[in-house]
Amino acid sequence: MNRAWLILLVFLTALNHLCAADFQPETLPLGSSAPDFSLTGVDGRSYALKDFAEAKILVVVFTCNHCPTV
């Protein structure tokens, strides 16, 4: 039984890497306006780009404690 779980885990890990390698997110050209967004903050509130219309600078940081590349 343990061997079956190990084989399944290896298969799913390999499949995940294959799928992730094909994904290429769209890159905005330098100087482009930010696309509209709505994101949930760590405080549970929803924030949209329009909420920061008066700000001179806006920095959005995506981070997590379980991802080694972040």
What key phrases describe this protein's structure?
elongated; 30% helix; 70 residues; two-stranded antiparallel sheet; alpha+beta
Explain this structure.
30% of the residues lie in helices and 9% in strands. The protein is an alpha+beta fold and 70 residues long. The chain has a domain at 35-70. The chain has a two-stranded antiparallel sheet with strand order 1-2. The longest helix is centred in the first third of the chain and has 21 residues, at 2-22. The two termini are 35 Å apart.
Rg estimate, integer Å: 19 Å
Which series of helices and strands comes N to C?
HEE
pLDDT < 50 runs, ≥5 residues: none
Q: How many β-strand runs?
A: 2
- Give, in spatial order, the strands making up the sheet with the most strands: 1-2
Could you estimate the helical fraction of the residues in percent?
25-40%
The major β-sheet equals: 2 strands, antiparallel
Form type: elongated
Query: What class do helices, strands and sheet pairing give?
Result: alpha+beta
Mean pLDDT: 78
Distance between the termini: 35 Å
Q: So how many helices?
A: 1
Q: Which percent range describes the beta-strand content? A: 5-15%
